Amino acid sequence: MRIIRAAKVLTGRPGEVIPDGEIVIDGASIVSVGPRGSAGDTPGELLDLPGCTVLPGLIDAHVHLGFDAAVDPITRRGQESDHHLLLRMAENARKLVSAGVTTARDLGGRGFLDLVLRDAIEEGLAVGPHLLAATRPITITGGHCWYMGGEADDEPAIRRVARENLRAGADCLKVMASGGQMTPGAPPSWVPQYTTEQIRVVVEEAADRGKGVAAHAHAHAAIRSCVEAGVATIEHCTFFTPRGHRYDPELADLLAAGDSYVCPTVHGAFWRIREVHGQEMLDAWLAGVAAMREAGVRLIAGTDAGFAIGGIANPTDGYVGGLEVFAMAGYSNAQVIELATVLAADACGVGEVTGTLEVGKRADLIAVAGDPLQRLSDLRDLVLVLVSGRSVGQSGVDTVTASVG
Ligand SMILES: [Zn+2]
């Protein structure tokens, strides 16, 4: 048994704060949560953290561990061996957990390497968060991210790719409902790639195995199709048109009334991109996030980390920077923590096992110096990171990639 005491425990249940709290962990599981002394005289190793806040581990609902600023997914595609790429992914997973992320959903890569890494982390061979892997995104021939290997143009082909991904062990399916910005020759962001019926096929195939679907959607029509098809999460949701972001209040109302969560892929590279590529587009995007919040759309945290955007790095250890952008969009610190933990866990289909500090759940938690309800940036002052009860904090350890810049 391990007993952790801290000045404050945020259980992750909305608004629940335990001053002078105590958590007891047995192996990988939480066995008691309450005020100091509530576990009685449970024998075990005591970790006393005065001045600290303990909260559920953070969740990144959208990463690509196979990419970072050193890899141009377009020009270098196919040039990096699977062996080398897997090492890169392992390093990006280590960085991710070093930022306090204890669960992450990898929404697209090639070669089923995300499954290899996921299993290696669970075995203790690699350091990282629990991973939920989408494997190859389903996309049209030559469509957005086609080079990841998931091309399918009609219903039978969609079912085949979906079933192959699930057979390989995917935890969820990813579908590219609209085009995007990063694949030369593919449809642009504002063009849908699939019909509502075709997206529904993906949802059906996933649901048959108890899994959910994450759908990449920038275009208005694609966003609408995703809500109608009942995907678990809509990624980006930028309301993109040939003339830039055009927020649509009616579509937002439809989102708020539907069952899908929205992961607007808000990340810490936001300010740098705004500086380099101009205010107008980025401010319109942030205004869209704020408007969705006001409309009651259920937003969750996910950074799209890995992909460098317009030459600007969006590294996997920059997670908290993305949460600060949510705060700019009008969320209180308590709400930001909620969308980074309990809501993200529910959206990713793992709300039964993680996302809150409750008896029976996995001991996925972090402790930070200070109080993130007062200062969100305190989430950077990690003193403890537990993934299924295993301590993985590595503060002060410099990696090769960090030291060579
Ligand atoms: Zn992505």
From TrEMBL:
Which intervals hold domain Amidohydrolase-related?
A: 53-391
Which CDD domains does this UniProt record tie to the protein?
Answer: Met_dep_hydrolase_A (cd01299)
| InterPro entries in the cross-refs | Amidohydro-rel (IPR006680), Metal-dep_hydrolase_composite (IPR011059), Metal_Hydrolase (IPR032466), Metallo-dep_Hydrolase (IPR051781), OTAase-like (IPR057744)
Q: Which Gene3D superfamilies match?
A: Metal-dependent hydrolases (3.20.20.140), Urease, subunit C, domain 1 (2.30.40.10)
Q: Which domain of life is it from?
A: Bacteria
Q: Which Pfam families match?
A: Amidohydro_1
Q: What is this protein called?
A: Amidohydrolase family protein
Q: Which organism is it from?
A: Nonomuraea purpurea
